[in-house]
Amino acid sequence: MSNLSTEKFDYSGLDIATASLAKESAIEIKAREKAIWENIIEIGNKLIAVKKALPHGSFGKWVKSEFEWSQITAGKYIKVAQELSSNYKDSYNLPNSFEAIYQLASGFSKTDETTKEQILNEVKNKTQEKGKALTEKEIKEITAKIKSEYEARISILEGQLEQTEIESDSRLTQIVSLESSLRFKEEKYEAQNQTIKEMEDKKQVFFEKELELAQQKKELGDKQVEIDTLIDKKAKLLAQEEIDREKARLLGKEQELEEQIRKTKNELKEAKKLRGEAETDAYRLKKFVNWMGALETFTENINENSLELFRAINSLQSLPDLSILTQEDQKIVSPQIRILIEQYDEARINYGKATQKITQLLNQLNLNTFNDVIEAEVIMPKKR
Fold first, then answer.
1. How many Å apart are CA 230 and CA 236, to the nearest integer?
2. pLDDT of residue 366
3. Phi/psi zone of residue 26: left (φ > 0), alpha (ψ -120 to 50 degrees), beta?
């Protein structure tokens, strides 16, 4: 095993021959050191090939006969070849005894690549610290420590894996439930598909019948057109006959209407004439009513004045004899009597004027009584 000092050897102080010898020897030693690994690994690979080729149960006999090895020894070579074949390039930093090499290979067993790398790095570091190859015991301690850490990590991972498996079981249960639900839905979907297929078949039958019905409808439409054409011709003939009859009827109605219009015009003319006469009579009657109202008012006034005059005369007749009055009393009464006489004269004059006015009115009518006036203004126009 070569010295792993980090200091580079100084060949400058040596003579040429010594320096050349030392350099060449170092190269050869490294090559031979590496050859130990290569030889052990190559032996293991050969054993693996022969074991595969020999019949079952013959490999142990073969190694015992050829090398006087036990099958355990052959298994160690095989183990080294299987575990270290890809890591012998740095063999000058690793142990050079077969048992130490086997121990390193055993440490690699059942580990991942990261752990193997950790073991190799630790062996290299310890070898550099020690300055020579490590013993089988030291290799075993290193591999045991790192594998213990690896197994602890594996244990944690297994716990996590177990938890994951539990969760997976729960999820699996959910998946199974979902699959069951999915199967139910698939069966339902299949049933629906079957129903849809049946409906599509019925739809096809319906479509064919619909086409047949459309054809029948078309034929019926053609026949209907023919019937409509015939009906239209017949209807036109009947309509023309009906129109002619209606024209004749309307012509008769028109003549009757013209006769009615002529009669109505004559009746309107007569009605206008009667209306004129009625308006004239109404005007005369209105004038007569006004005249009679005024006469009635006048009569009431005359009657009222006559009644007062009559009362005054009666009151005078009830007076006592003036001869019984004294001369002084007569002087007092005499002015009052004169006033009464004056009032009576005035009333008599007014009464005479009214009588004269009535007489003039009667003379205008050439009548002598109020009854004649009524007959002249009311009865006589009706006779006319």
1. 10
2. 58
3. alpha
- The pTM of this model reads 0.35
Cα–Cα dist 208/211, whole Å = 5
* Rounded Cα gap, residues 25 and 11, in angstroms: 13
* Range with the poorest average pLDDT among 115-124, 152-161, 311-320, 355-364: 311-320
Task: Give ∠ CA 132-134-136 in degrees, rounded to 5.
Answer: 150
Q: What does 44-102 look like in DSSP terms, one character per residue?
A: HHHHHHHHHHSPTT-HHHHHHHHH---HHHHHHHHHHHHHHTTSGGGGGGS--SHHHHH
Q: What is the DSSP string of 127-185?
A: HHHHTSPPPHHHHHHHHHHHHHHHHHHHHHHHHHHHHHHHHHHHHHHHHHHHHHHHHHH
Residue with tokens 């009588």: 355
> What's the length of the chain?
384
Arithmetic mean of pLDDT, 360-374: 58
- Do 133 and 95 meet the contact criterion of CB atoms below 8 Å apart? yes
Query: How would DSSP label each residue in 338-353?
Result: HHHHHHHHHHHHHHHH
| Spatial separation of the C-alpha atoms in residues 264 and 247, rounded to whole Å | 25
Burial track 141-156 (b if 16+ CB lie within 10 A, e otherwise) = bbbeebbeebeeebee
**Residue with the larger pLDDT of the pair 364 and 53:** 53
**Which 8-state DSSP code applies to residue 369?**
S
Task: Give 285-316 pLDDT, tens digit per residue.
Answer: 787 677 678 777 877 777 777 777 677 667 76
Provide the CB-side half-sphere exposure for 332 (13 A, CA): 4
Calpha distance 347→296 (Å, rounded) = 20
Q: Write down the pLDDT at residue 75.
A: 92
User: Distance between CA atoms of 246 and 240, rounded to whole angstroms?
Assistant: 10
Four-residue CA torsion sign, 212, 213, 214, 220: positive
Residue 44 to residue 69: CA distance in whole angstroms: 13
| Residue 71, both tokens | 């099958």
Which two three-digit tokens encode residue 15? 């003579």
pLDDT in tens, 208-257: 888 888 888 888 888 888 888 887 887 788 878 888 888 888 888 888 88
Alpha carbon 47 to its chain's center: 82
Three-state DSSP class for 8?
coil
Question: What token pair was written down for 303?
Answer: 């009657």
